[in-house]
Design brief:
The complex is a heterodimer of chains A (119) and B (241). Chain A is mainly α. Helix content of chain A is 80%, strand content 0%. Chain A has one domain (2-118). Classes of the chains: A mainly alpha (119), B alpha+beta (241). The interface between A and B is medium-sized, with 17 and 18 residues.
Chain lengths: 119, 241
Amino acid sequence: MKKWIIIMVSSFLILFTVLLFNSAGFLKKPLTGEDNFILALSQIQSEVEKDNWNEANSFLEQADYAWEKVKNRIQFSVERTFLDDIDNELATIKGAIKSKDFSMLIISLEKIRFLWSIL
Amino acid sequence: MDEITVTLVRSAIAFATLLLFTRILGKQQVGQLTAFEYIAGITIGSAASSLSIDLSTKPLPQFVGVSTWVVLVFALQKLAIKYRWFAKVTDDQPTIVIQQGKILEDNLSKIRLRYDELMSQLRDKDVFDITQVQYALLEPNGNISVLKKPEYDTPTLMDLKLPPSVTGLFTEVILDGVIIDQNLSNKNKSMDWLANQLQANGISSIKEVSYAAIMPNGQLYIDKFKDKIKEIDIGDFQGPF
């Protein structure tokens, strides 16, 4: 009986570890209405293309909020450097919106999309 | 703060994983490990350490790395038990380094063991005179086994034709003031017997006993929490510690 419990606990431990360390693919998807990071990025881009920089800024705030939510969920299974890189790119986007620098904003958005795809 | 949380979780997982994997790999002591198993152990520990604190890489590949090493070492151990030739290939064989008191220089050279290392290992085995050695072998785990010439060997009771005293294992019956019922019943002793034994030794409560065990001769060894002895200071340093 005891041996059976030990085997079950050990198997659960290994299974839990593998699932936790492999959970980023699932956990980065939007689970509530407020954590759709990629959608917020697309909205920033579409507003900037329409020259609505103020609207873009409010979508950036949404993106920041969504990113914090997602980051907390996926932090156990991804490289820390990738999370820091996305933080940096979001700061660049903030600067690009302030200075109304379209090309810099597009470059940063594409960098984030690439980093997002490999998380 | 985020890094600390992640490090905490990953460290806890690495700790549990390492504990589980070392239990799977068995209870060999470090001295019994072959050179390869020793190095494999270091690698597994190093990978587990990475899993714990290296946040710059994904944890899953690190976990897979640790698991792969454990599975391979485990498979190696199993194969070595099943196939003798495999054990010979992977674990090496003992090498004779001294025969009839003569050092075998060619073998020493093959295994790259220096004379001073050989002498040191012999002294470690209480052999200070090389002429007393009939055979000395370097084992795959790096230790030296020595067979002394019969005239220099320690005499046994059988050699001296003396009757042996009763030997066996101590069976613990009280640990930290708590009775171990299972061991008591295994030795066919009752609680009354234990109580009588304690009373005979001037002990009124089990809580006074830190350790008690039934000796091979059937008597009870008792050690109390409060030993009435004056401790001897063997330190050569005044303090403060």
